Amino acid sequence: MQNLEENASENHADLDLNGAHPNWDAFTKINKLSWQMSFSYTLFIQMTVLVYSSIQLDSDEDNLAALTLITSLINTVALIGVAPLFAMSLVAGRQLGALRDLEKNPETTEEELTLKREEIAAVFGNGLRISLVVCPFMVMPLVFSKDILMSVFGQNEQVAQICQNFTRPYAATIPPLLLRVCADQVMFMFERTKPAMLMSLLTFAISLSIGDVLAFGKLGSPKLGNDGILLGCILGVYLEAICYLIYLKKSPRLSKFDFYDLRKDWSPHFNQLKDIRHLARSMVFAMVTESSMMIAINSFSGVVGVSQQATMAAILQFSLLAALLQMSFGQTGSQEMSREIGANHFNQASRMGKMSALALLLYIGTVLLIFSIYPTPLSMIISNHTQEMTHTLKYLAPIMFVGCIFDSQRYLLLQQMRVLGDAKKSSMISGVSVVLGIILSGTLGLHTKMGVYGVGAGFTLSSAIACIIIFSRWLKMIDPTFIENAKKNSERAGNLSSSGQNMFKTSDRRSSGGIDLSTMSPMQPQDNVNSI
Prior knowledge:
The chain contains 18 helices and no strands. It is mainly alpha-helical. The chain has one domain. Helix 4 packs antiparallel against helix 11. The N terminus and C terminus are likely disordered.
């Protein structure tokens, strides 16, 4: 333990002297990785293009309403389904940080490094095991979307049928999507965001071209309309998954990690799966509540009126760009923090968290505030928009976009709190605020004269409440001394901490004289942090 503490102090000094402007260095690194990661999330960009292309083919109100439901349902299913896999890069990222720290130590043996690499490589197989479990639960809502939309959300039969005509065949993309996410989490963990971005953009361009040709009957092909767009979307997901899997196998940067050796004994890596599962629970809970909020907003807007729902759809489609940024900056920041904590770089871990929050606020805050003041360009998203829609947009956009700013910060801080060991309490705060938001949106939107503005106000108020509460907790826990003490405290607990309870526990071979490959997932704050 003494060696570990001395090593941590040395790392503090190293990071403080690393560069004349460490905050700027952290800011630029976060920006680079986050923007590259956001451009790799082509599924959500695909949904925006889907709406635009479908409007060109058919712009009646039923089709517009169905498009809102299609994009909301697919995004919801995708986000909830892949949420457990996002934990892969956090758990294995901590192990990767520990590996890099070991590689700098001349006393480390090759056997220790090999075992640690095997442990890190096992995260891909554990991701596949989780995918086998979640896959059926992702497929079913897409296959039977009509019944769900009619019975649960009160949508009319014609709109629900249009939605199901798209989502049922699109369900075939779920298996390759899960494979792709397992692969991208490994790539993001190793900071290979640029290859991920390039492969995603290339496959997206190919699928977009195929969909455009088939939909509009170009180059002598039959005009398939929305079916052509659907085929392009499906082919794109399969092509992207294939490219990612090939990269994991062939990349020289990852040659020391055998991700595809699934026949080896898995039992030594069962604890890693439990760590991922433990962290994934809070992620799934958060995604379920957040997605429920978006579905509720769409549904409440539809009850108010079709034109109001179309206007809300335009705002939500634009806010999807903000969602892309909050996902990428949130994941990048938490991954960087996880790696730095694993390597005992506590100042740098704190710095990465702060700079990612600042960067996201600057980008999303600036853009959304501009469109809050001048929302007219958003009317271009609404085909054949009426004067009533333009008027609604003028007042609804500022309400919703202020809420999006709060919501983006809430999401990012929640991601970091998982790394800092406060997953359960922060997730509960976030979940309760979402339930409050749904109640407020329904009450203000459907039972007062506020109408669709009340729907938006409920979302904004609940997002602001959650953001402020979580921010107050984050301010205390992001301090580097707090992080270091939390890790030391958890390591003193040793075997008293069970698997899946402690994110800060990393192996220290030098002090124990043995080989301890355990790297645990988030600790419960009441078990460790409060005792500091």
